[in-house]
Amino acid sequence: MQQKPRLNFWQIWNMSFGFLGIQFGFALQNANTSRIFQTLGAETNELAILWLAAPVTGLLVQPIVGFYSDRTWHPRWGRRRPYFAIGAVLASAALILMPNSYMLWMAAGMLWIMDASINISMEPFRAFVGDMLPADQRTAGFAMQSFFIGIGAVIASALPWIFTNVFGMDNTAPEGVIPQTVKWSYYLGAFAFLGAVMWTVFKTKEYPPDAAEQAATDFKTAPLNIRYSPRFYISIGAVFTALAIAVAAFVNIRQLEKELYVLGGILALFGLAYLVAGLLMSRNIYRIGFVQIVRDFQNMPKTMIQLAFVQFFSWFALFAMWIYSTAAVTSHIYGSSDTTGKLYNDGADWVTVLFAVYNGVAALVAFLLPVLARYTGRRVAHLLALTLGGIGLISFYFIKDPQMLVLSMVGVGIAWASILSIPYAMLSTSIPQQKMGYYMGIFNFFIVIPQIVAASILGFVLSRVFEGESIYALIIGGAAMILAGLLSLLVNDRDEVVLPAE
Question: Residue 179's beta-bridge partner residues?
Fold first, then answer.
């Protein structure tokens, strides 16, 4: 494999700048989607199932984009940049359409399209760091991405508040109508998304693959490394399928919430993939993309499997926060669930400011975490950051003054900065260079699956155990984040370097 040259600050800046726009899209989605759903008539216990569009889309899109971006090369556009550009155009169009939804089903559908489009741009950006930077610069590369994620989210999350308090736009609207502040936030976000991503597309040049890289990524000619027999894949597929049937039957017999069927659906999806791949391999059909995707998933590096558990509980906590923060703050602290009232909308606006705070903190500490990691090790640094985030989420229950929630979000921001950089830095040195895009896409499974689990079970838990009180979702999320920190200590970080104490 070719030796990559070290890049200077501005080269890393340019290759990461597109994440500023991508985070505009995600921040607007995270801070305002529940508000849009509730405005269009969704009940609190329906929010989780409506949010499922986003993670399900990521589960399908990310590994496919990663797999084929590994095998893409154009003399002018490179390997990853075509996906940046296509995703940016589609996501910007979806951002314009989302706040103009006039029915709940339309908003849910637009969330699906918007999330798919954002993922087309975002997933190759993670592999971009591995493509462009030598191993000793990758932590800095992911930290730069975290910086732009934080800056973009600060601005995007605060946009409805800015349009209300700076530009004097009307923050309320008739029942079933999205306020103008939200609409203009999405319009500006669409412009920022497209502009920032295209900056990276035109300001960065990718390295062409050498002969060894091309041979390694061509699954049609590369040597086969058959580690497991076709019968193994068929057996695993049968187990997943049986579990899916059992989950669906249990939910049906007990008449539980319908979103729990999604868990069965995910198990069925994995079961079907393994069964089909096993049957194809039993006929000696190995050299097709689908079979290679399933085989590479089964052969994940050990470090990646260990990080999967850390990611699962980290992102479960984040998704609980994104889904229920608006409902929790407006009901538990502001005391209102009337989406047409001023009190509710003031609370909803304050949530967007709080989201801006945690993202701002993440931007500020993004470059400090690599320094901390050099003294404590990346695993301990991640533990400290996630513990602060978990405490921040749990503190929502005890705070009565909305202004004090800013302190809670400081902890969440530190955790967010770490989640966006340290696991990826550990992962990037443990996976094959020629499969960087695919494994970064698969790694996002452990972001998406906990989101699906959260969306499937949190509504059930809140309604059956906590009488629909949204604040308890944040407590559950805080506990999950602390657990993720503890699990990070078990990760085999083979390139971890700790400076000796003086």
Answer: none
Quote the crossing angle between the two packed helices 289-298 and 53-70, to the nearest 10°: 110
Range of 164's domain? 9-216+299-488
Residues near 168 by beta carbon (within 8 Å), at least 6 away in sequence: none
Q: What is the pLDDT of residues 91-108, one digit of tens each?
A: 999 999 988 888 888 888
Contacts of 464 (CB under 8 A, 6+ apart): none
Between CA 206 and CA 209, with CA 207 as vertex, the angle to 5 degrees is: 125
Decide which of 277, 296, 315 is a domain's last residue.
296
Task: Please give the tally of structural domains in the chain.
Answer: 2
Kindly state whether residues 287 and 305 are assigned to the same domain.
Answer: no
Q: Is the pTM of this model over 0.90?
A: no
Find the helix or strand (DSSP H, E) in which 180 lies.
Answer: helix 180-203
User: What CATH number corresponds to the domain at position 48?
Assistant: 1.20.1250.20
Indicate if 286 and 309 belong to the same structural domain: no
* Cα–Cα distance for residue pair 103/105, rounded to 1 Å: 6
Pull the structure tokens for residue 38. 């509730």
pLDDT for 412-459, tens place per residue? 999 998 998 888 888 877 777 777 777 877 887 788 788 778 877 787
- Calpha distance 376→489 (Å, rounded): 12
Q: For tokens 């050299």, name the residue.
A: 287
| Contact criterion met (CB below 8 Å) for 415 and 385 | yes
Enter the tokens of residue 406.
């800013």
CA angle 437, 442, 447 (to 5 degrees): 120
